[in-house]
Specification:
- It is a single chain.
- The strands form 4 sheets. The protein has a 4-stranded antiparallel β-sheet with strand order 1-2-4-3.
- It folds into 3 domains: 84 residues, 2-Layer Sandwich (Gyrase A, domain 2); 213 residues, Rossmann fold; 171 residues, Isoleucyl-tRNA Synthetase, Domain 1, CATH 1.10.730.
- It is globular and about 90 Å long.
- Helix content is 52%, strand content 9%.
- The structure holds arginine (ARG).
Length: 587
């Protein structure tokens, strides 16, 4: 069964058609003035223009035509000819019970899935992850969940940054620290040691150290560059080292991403497409798409109607290295060939928009994928309270694991203050604090329009009041507790008969899920789904405040309210799960 607005649109459409007008004019949507009626239709105004008639006359004709429509209790004509529509009790009842029976709690599924790749996360081997990578992970994960739920065939790829100058820095640094390792002997060709020469702590120490040395010393910088070029040219010892660096780094990243509850189908990286680059470059040269300019091989991407200058994509630098754009192009080739993807979403900091514009134009020019199938899903920065990008107290980049620890601690403190979790053992408390901490961080991120910057404020994120993750968890847990008590009293849910205004308002909120879900997917805007979860929790709260459930004496009313509560919980948990947020059983 479709959403109420769609059912009503179908009725109104027929009524407009009977006036010789297009059905589309019967479009019904949630009202801007819910105090007057839950739904509105403004089609009489354009309809009147088309027919050269008075809009109020058209509105009156529509109203008369629908006088006996069972879905509609009342239509009021307002102002110049707006139609305010009140659904019938029967319409509310049918919709509520259909939702309660529907496994997908009201969300339809797409008939034509598209093979879609989501490129997100993108941490760099050796460089610490920063909050930008956190945003990418949280937004990308929500999009992969939402995309799958609507019915697309989604593959996610972390796309590790493992092919740039940072690898040259690591190699150089290791050579200075442990010059006797076989990797630095150009004549040695294996077999290579299976044990990595470094651990995760070494890696996180080495990159900043090497980068600082190179900054101060041009000769050292040149060594790092040369090592990068030799790696890219396939020097066996360096490739063997690269594999160690990636493996060590991945093991650490997996711990972090597991803690965050984010999973990737593919753990590929920039380095994986290196073997594709030579043939791709040759082909682009042969077809005249890439050519030499100042010793670099470039693909020009500017267009006549560009408002600002678009620099060319540099395919091979004058030093012979592949750059960021090169691996991104080769990765498109790989995704097309090995996965037959039809669309790629790149969930990456908005500050990389020019890079993606270049890559997409170049991919289009090269006939790899059309530009409108490649989307940069940009996002704003996370700032500290000083308005500058968020840093640790010491001024460094915040590590994901430290950030999560901070969130868990803040959650524990909030729980203490609110007296939540009394009587729970340490393990259970910890589990709840983790869920609250994650919900706090994820919801605080996702509730914003992607492109806006936001201020990192753990106190605000973990509050139990307001538009926060913990508030939503609390709402879900409260319903769980009601349902547990009902079960203990042997009470069961039954047919839903919405009667009180708060019951009807809750059904209307539940009815909006499908629209919110597709709004979030179509616009790549998880905040639309966040808004829905918040509306739903608030509608439930008003319903619960006005309509007793367990104490209700009338059995039919009580079972109806129980069913409404159970339905709300199911939809709330479904929506939260799509945002990557898990609800505890108790708190
Ligand atoms: N590693 C990059 C960074 O840290 C992000 C990678 C994004 N994905 C891509 N296909 N370029 O900035």
């Amino acid at each position: 069964m479709r959403a109420l607005s769609e059912q009503l649109s179908a009725c109104l459409g027929q009524a407009f058609a009977a006036q010789g007008l297009p059905e589309a004019l019967g479009q019904v949507r949630p009202s801007d003035r819910p105090d007057l009626a839950p739904f509105q239709c403004n089609g009489a105004l354009p309809g009147a223009k088309q027919l050269g008639r008075n809009p109020r006359d058209i509105a009156t004709a529509i109203k008369e035509k629908l006088a006996d429509e069972p879905l509609i209790a009342d239509i009021q004509i307002a102002g110049p000819g707006f139609l305010n529509i009140v659904p019938s009790d029967a319409a509310y009842k049918a919709r509520a019970n259909a939702l309660a029976k529907d496994e997908r709690v009201g969300a339809h599924q797409l008939a034509t899935p598209q093979k879609t790749l989501i490129d997100f996360g993108g941490p760099n081997v050796a460089k610490p992850m920063h909050v930008g990578h956190l945003r990418s992970s949280v937004i990308g994960d929500a999009l992969q969940r939402i995309g799958r739920f609507v019915g697309h065939d989604i593959t996610s790829d972390i796309h590790l940054g493992d092919w740039g100058l940072q690898m040259g820095h690591l190699i150089t640094q290791l050579e200075d620290e442990q010059p006797d390792l076989p990797y630095f002997d150009a004549d040695f060709d294996g077999p290579w040691p299976t044990q990595p020469p470094v651990d995760l702590d070494d890696l996180s120490r080495m990159y900043p150290q090497a980068a600082a040395l190179a900054k101060a010393d041009p000769e050292r910088m040149q060594r790092a560059r040369t090592a990068t070029a030799q790696l890219q040219a396939g020097r066996a010892g360096y490739l063997a080292l690269l594999r160690h660096f990636i493996a060590v780094s991945r093991a650490g990243l997996e711990v972090d991403f597991n803690a965050l509850g984010v999973h990737f189908d593919l753990w590929k990286g920039e380095s994986d497409v290196n073997p594709l680059i030579p043939a791709m470059v040759e082909d682009l040269k042969a077809r005249g798409i890439a050519y030499l300019s100042d010793n670099a091989l470039i693909i020009p991407v500017e267009r006549d109607d560009d408002k600002k200058k678009q620099p060319p994509l540099i395919l091979v630098s004058s030093e012979g290295s592949a750059l960021y754009g090169t691996t991104d192009l080769a990765t498109i080739l790989d995704r097309k060939n090995s996965l037959a993807v039809e669309r790629i979403l790149y969930v990456v900091d908005q500050r990389q928009s020019q890079h993606f514009e270049q890559v997409f134009r170049a991919a289009d020019k090269a006939g790899l994928m059309a530009q409108d199938t490649l989307e940069h899903i940009g996002f704003g920065t996370v700032n500290g309270k000083d308005g500058k990008p968020f840093k640790t107290r010491e001024g460094g980049v915040m590590r994901l694991s430290d950030l999560l620890d901070m969130a868990w601690q803040a959650a524990r403190q909030r729980m203490n203050e609110a007296g939540i979790g009394e009587g729970m053992d340490e393990g259970a408390l910890d589990d709840v604090a983790r869920k609250i901490g994650l919900a706090a961080i994820k919801f605080a991120d996702l509730r914003n329009q992607r492109l806006t910057n936001y201020v990192f404020d753990m106190d605000r994120f973990t509050a139990f009041e307001g538009k926060t993750g913990p508030y939503l968890l609390y709402a879900a847990v409260r319903i769980k507790s009601i349902l547990r008590k009902a079960a203990a009293q042997g009470l069961s849910a039954g047919e839903i008969i919405p009667a009180a205004p708060e019951e009807k308002a809750l059904v209307l909120a539940l009815d909006q899920f499908d629209a919110a879900l597709y709004g979030a997917w179509d616009k790549r805007a998880p905040h639309i789904l966040c808004e829905h979860t918040y509306d739903l929790a608030q509608s439930f709260s008003r319903f619960y405040g006005a309509c007793p459930i367990l104490p209700e004496k009338d059995a039919a009313v009580r079972t109806s309210r129980l069913a409404l509560a159970a339905l709300t919980l199911r939809q709330l948990e479904t929506a939260l799960d799509l945002l990557g947020i898990e609800t505890p059983e108790r708190m």
